[in-house]
TrEMBL record, chains A, B:
Residues 1-26 are annotated as: Disordered. The keyword Transferase does not apply. This is Pyridoxal-dependent decarboxylase. Its cofactor is pyridoxal 5'-phosphate. Keywords: Decarboxylase, Lyase, Pyridoxal phosphate. The keyword Cell cycle does not apply. It comes from Streptomyces yunnanensis.
Length: 504, 504
C-alpha cells in the first residue's frame, strides 16, 4: 500500500468527476485529486509569500470572483484551491497572529481527511459505529483532563465555544424553567411580575453569552455584566453584590458564566469564588475555557485554571490551543443526569428497541442532528503527541508571548497593556500626538495598512468602557514554531506602519 | 509540483509530529501523512469487506477501545484511521442505504482537505479573506437556484438542517417578539393571558422544529402538528383550519414550517398553499428543503418543489443530495433586511471603522463565531460537475428508488408503503403471522440482524400515529453508482433476514 499515491494516473486525465471517496476504491480516486490540492496549496502559498496577500478587500474579492467565473470542470479544484491558498490569512506564518485562529497540525489535518472520506455522522450508531465509540472514549479522557469524574460526566463535540456556551446556558435555563412546561414568552410588553432570570458574567466575557440569552428567549438584558479589575478579571465583590441585589429584587440567578481565558487578554476569572457563589445562590456555573482550557495541557500553566472542575459545565476549543482545524469544540457537563434538555426519541434514528438491544445513540447530546466526527482528529492528535507533547506547544506559545511583551515594554513607541496570562497580549503604538482619538485612529489605521500591504495580521480590539483611547492592538501567539526574532520583526513592522500612518 | 507526493520520506520516518499544515512547507509535511491515511482507509475498508463490520455494538466498541489504548506516537494515525475505516457504515457501499447519509464525492473531499490545511474561519475577514468572498459568491448562486433574487437575498453556511431550521424560527420569533426587548419567560407557571406564539408544521416534519421551539424559549407545545394525507403531506384544509383556530383563540401564528422532502418518504408539502396562508395570516414561511432541495439540481424533478421561492427562508443540505462530506448546510433568507437578529458588533472581530474601510464581515449572519469554510467544497463541486452533472446524479438516485420500489411491489413477502417522491421509500417484510405487533418485531429484528451480520444498513422508522403495525423499513438511495441489481440483492437480503427472524 505504500506506493498507493504513486500508482494513480495524473490529475488531468484522472478519475471521472463523480468518483466517490469511500469504499475500497476511494483512496485510488482521491490520490490524483489530493496531489492536485497539495500542489495548488504550495503554489498559492508561494505566490502569497507572506501572512496574507497584499491588496484591498475589494481587489481580493475581484480576484476570487474572476476565478469563480472561469474555473470549470477538470481545472476547478486546482484553480479554486490556488486562489483560496493565495487569499488566505495563514496562521502558519509567524506574522499572522491576530486571533484565536491556530495553525493546524499536519497530523490533525490528515486525520480529518479520513473523516471527510468516510463521512460518519454522529446522530445514529448505524451512520458511525466506530466514530460513536471513539467520541465517547475521547470525552471520557477530556472529562478527566478537566478534573471531572468520567463515570459521572457527559459531553459532546461542538462547533465551538459559542455553541458550547449556548448549551451550558440552555441547561441552566431549563433546570429552572423546565423544558416542556410550555412556559411562554410574555407578549404584553409589560415585564412580568414574577422573578426574572438573570445570568452573571464579566464585562470582558465573550459576546456569545448575550447572544445565547437572546436566542434562548431570555433577552439580552437578562445578562448582568459584572465589573472587572484592570487585568479584566471579574471582581469577586462585584459578583457577590450583583447576586445579592438580584435576589433582593426578587429575581432569579440562573447562571454564572466565568471565563477561563478571555479572548483579548487570556484573563481568568476567580473560578473558586464563582463556584462558591454559585453554590450559595443555587446558580449553574458554566466556565468558558475555550481558550484557557489549553492550560490543562501544561503542568506549568494548569494552576491558572484551578477550580475548573467545580463548574457544572465547561467549554473547551481544541481549534485554539489544540492545533486542530475548525471545528473542534467540546462541551462537558459534570453530572450526566443534569444533561436532559436534548433527550430526544426520533423513530428513524434511535428507536427504543434498538437502544434496548445495545445500540448506543449520541443524538440526545447535541443541538445538531447530522454531525461530523470531529472527535477523530483530536483523538489522533492526542495519541500522536500525548498530553505532554501538546503541553510543550502550549508552553512554547506562552514563552513567546512573554518575550513579545518584554520587547513591547522595551520599545519607546510601544505601550504594553499587561503581561500575558496565556499566549496573548494587548499593546498599542504611541504616536507623537497623544490625543486619545488620534492614538486610536493611528493604531486602527496601521493595522489596516499592515493588512493591505500583506505584511502582517495583527489583532485589534478595545478595552472595556466608554470614550476614546481604548483601541489596542493584539498579538495572539498560537504558532509554536515562531521564534522570538520573528515576533520582534512583527513588532518592528507595527512601528514602521505606525510611523507611516503618522506621516499621512 | 506534480511529483510532490513522490518526493517525501516514508511515513514511518516522517516529519516531526508538530509539523504544521499551512505555509509553503505544509504540503510537504502532509504528503507522508496523507499516504498513511489513504493506505489505512484502503486497508480498513478491505478488512470490512462490506457496508459495515459484522458484530454487536459492544464488540465493535471493544475493538475501538483496544486500539485507542494501544495506538501511540508515529503509529497512531495509521491505527486509528484503520479502525475508523473498518468500523464505519460506508455509504459508498450499495448495501448501506438507511439514512440521508451520502457517499461524498472524491473531489469534494479533496477540496475539504484544502480547508483543513489552511483553516480559514469565517467570523472575520482577516481570518478568511478569500473564503469570505467565496462564501458570498456561492450564496448568490444558491439563492438563484432557489429562485430568490440574489441582490435581495442573504444567507450563511450552517451545520445542517437542524441549525437552518432554528435560524428560520428565530427570525420568525424575533420579527414578532423583538430581539432585545427584554421580554421574559414567565415564571408564574400560569400561562400568560396574552396571545401565545404558535408554529405550524406537519406531523411528518423533522423533530428539529419542536427542538428549536424549546431552545427558543417558546416551548415545544408552541408547535401545532398539522395532519397529513396518506402520502405524509400536510393537508391544506387542516392547515387553514389550524391557523383559523389559532387566531380565534387570540393566539399568534408566528411561522409555518413546510417540508420539501420529509426524511422518511421525501414528501413535499403544498408549498404554494402554505405561502398564501402565511401571507393571509402574517406568518413567516420557512421551507425545510434539507432533502428536497436536491430536486432543484434536476430539470426533471425541480417542479416537485415549485413555489419554494415564495418562502421567507429556506434550509438546504448539500451533505444529502449534494454529495458533500458533513457539514454542508445552507440557510437562505429571501430578503436580507429581515435577517437582523444576529447583527453583532464585536470590537475584536468587526469594528465599525474596518467595515467603513471596506472590510466585510460575515459574523452577523451566523449563530456560530469560529466557522469552517464549508462553502469551499460546495463551490469546487459545483464548478467541477456543474448543476447539470449534479442533476444527473439526482436523477440516477431517483430512478434507482423507482426500480427498488417496483422490485418491492413485485415481491410477495414485501409491502411497499408508497411510490418514491425523491430517492427514498418505505416498505416492510410480511411474515406468515400477520399480527401487527409481530410484523413490527420481525422487521425491527431483521434490520438489527443485517447490521449484526455486516450485510446491510437499512433504515427503520414508524408511520405517524399510534399503536402497533407502524414500523417500516426504509431505503434511502443516495449512491448514484449503485445498480438496480444491487438494490435487488439488498432486498433479497432483507427477505432472507426476515425468514431467519421468523425461524427464531
Amino acid at each position: 500500500m505504500a506506493g498507493l499515491l504513486r500508482e494513480a494516473a495524473p490529475a488531468s486525465s484522472g478519475a471521472p468527476h463523480t468518483a466517490l471517496s469511500g469504499g475500497t476504491g476511494g483512496p485510488g480516486a482521491l490520490t490524483p485529486l489530493l496531489r492536485t490540492v497539495l500542489a495548488a496549496l504550495a503554489e498559492g502559498a508561494g505566490r502569497r509569500g507572506g501572512p496574507l496577500a497584499a491588496g484591498t478587500p475589494a481587489e481580493l474579492a475581484a480576484d476570487v470572483a474572476r476565478v469563480f467565473a472561469e474555473a470549470d470542470g477538470d481545472d476547478a479544484l486546482r484553480r479554486l484551491t490556488d486562489v483560496l491558498a493565495h487569499g488566505s490569512a495563514d496562521p502558519a506564518d509567524p506574522a499572522c497572529a491576530a486571533h484565536l485562529h491556530c495553525p493546524p497540525l499536519a497530523v490533525a489535518v490528515a486525520a480529518d481527511l479520513a473523516v471527510s472520506a468516510l463521512n460518519p455522522s454522529q446522530d445514529s450508531w448505524d451512520q458511525a459505529p466506530a466514530a460513536t465509540a471513539m467520541e465517547t472514549l475521547l470525552l471520557g479522557e477530556l472529562a478527566q483532563l478537566v478534573g471531572y469524574d468520567p463515570a459521572e460526566a457527559a459531553g459532546v463535540l461542538t462547533s465551538g465555544g459559542t455553541e458550547s456556551n449556548l448549551m451550558g446556558l440552555m441547561l441552566a435555563r431549563d433546570r429552572v424553567l423546565g423544558r416542556e412546561t410550555g412556559r411562554q414568552i410574555e407578549l404584553s410588553g409589560v415585564p412580568g411580575s414574577g422573578p426574572r432570570p438573570r445570568i452573571f458574567t464579566s464585562a470582558a466575557a465573550h459576546f456569545s453569552v448575550q447572544r445565547s440569552a437572546a436566542l434562548l428567549g431570555l433577552g439580552e438584558d437578562a445578562v448582568v455584566p459584572v465589573p472587572v479589575d484592570d487585568q479584566l478579571r471579574m471582581k469577586p465583590k462585584a459578583l457577590a453584590a450583583a447576586l445579592s441585589a438580584c435576589v433582593a429584587e426578587g429575581d432569579l440567578p440562573v447562571a454564572i458564566v466565568a471565563t477561563a481565558g478571555t479572548t483579548d487578554t487570556g484573563a481568568v476569572d476567580p473560578l473558586r469564588t464563582c463556584a462558591s457563589l454559585a453554590a450559595q445562590y443555587g446558580a449553574w456555573l458554566h466556565v468558558d475555557a475555550a481558550y484557557g482550557g489549553g492550560a490543562l495541557l501544561s503542568d506549568r500553566l494548569a494552576p491558572l485554571v484551578g477550580g475548573i472542575a467545580l463548574a457544572d459545565s465547561v467549554s473547551l476549543d481544541w481549534h485554539k490551543l489544540g492545533w486542530q482545524p475548525v471545528a473542534a469544540g467540546i462541551f462537558l457537563v459534570k453530572r450526566a443526569e443534569t444533561y436532559a434538555s436534548l433527550a430526544r426519541r426520533a423513530v428513524y434514528l434511535n428507536p427504543q428497541d434498538d437502544e434496548e438491544a445495545g445500540y448506543p445513540s449520541l443524538l440526545g447530546l447535541s443541538l445538531r442532528t447530522t454531525r461530523r466526527a470531529d472527535a477523530f482528529k483530536i483523538a489522533v492528535t492526542l495519541r500522536t503527541l500525548g498530553r505532554e507533547g501538546l503541553g510543550r506547544l502550549v508552553d512554547a506559545c506562552h514563552e513567546l508571548a512573554h518575550s513579545g511583551a518584554a520587547a513591547v515594554r522595551a520599545h519607546p513607541r510601544l505601550e504594553l497593556h499587561a503581561d500575558p496570562v496565556l499566549t496573548a497580549f494587548l499593546f498599542r503604538y504611541l504616536p507623537e500626538n497623544t490625543d486619545p482619538e488620534h492614538i486610536d485612529r493611528i493604531n486602527a489605521g496601521l493595522r489596516r495598512r499592515l493588512l493591505r500591504e500583506g505584511r502582517a495580521v495583527v489583532g485589534r480590539t478595545e478595552l472595556p468602557g466608554e470614550g476614546p483611547g481604548r483601541v489596542r492592538l493584539k498579538l495572539t501567539l498560537l504558532n509554536p514554531h515562531t521564534t522570538t526574532d520573528e515576533v520582534q520583526r512583527l513588532l518592528d513592522a507595527v512601528v514602521a506602519a505606525g510611523r507611516a500612518e503618522e506621516e499621512l
